[in-house]
Design brief:
By secondary structure, this protein is an all-alpha fold. Helices cover about 65% and strands about 0% of the residues. It has one domain. It starts with a helix and ends with a helix.
């Protein structure tokens, strides 16, 4: 029973990681190209997943906060 749960957990982790690789922006993935990360996770699951999450996944960048229209000089210029 424990073996079956381990296999199911590994498969879920593989699918989750592969989905993350596919959805990630190719320009933000680090160290290897996106296609190589995909193959590495698929062919060597345990090592590939750990390596991707440590070395390959895109680092989150903080987006600038949105500017309200009344604080945007460009918007105010267009009103005149």
């Amino acid at each position: 029973m424990g073996y079956v749960l381990s296999v199911i957990l590994l498969l879920v982790c593989i699918v989750f990681t592969e989905a993350h690789v596919v959805q990630a922006n190719s320009e933000q993935i680090r160290v290897l190209p996106k296609s190589l990360w995909f193959a590495l996770v698929l062919l060597i699951p345990a090592i590939g997943m750990i390596a991707y999450w440590i070395f390959g996944r895109p680092l989150h960048t903080v987006a600038p906060p949105p500017v309200a229209p009344d604080d945007d000089p460009e918007f105010l210029r267009n009103l005149r």
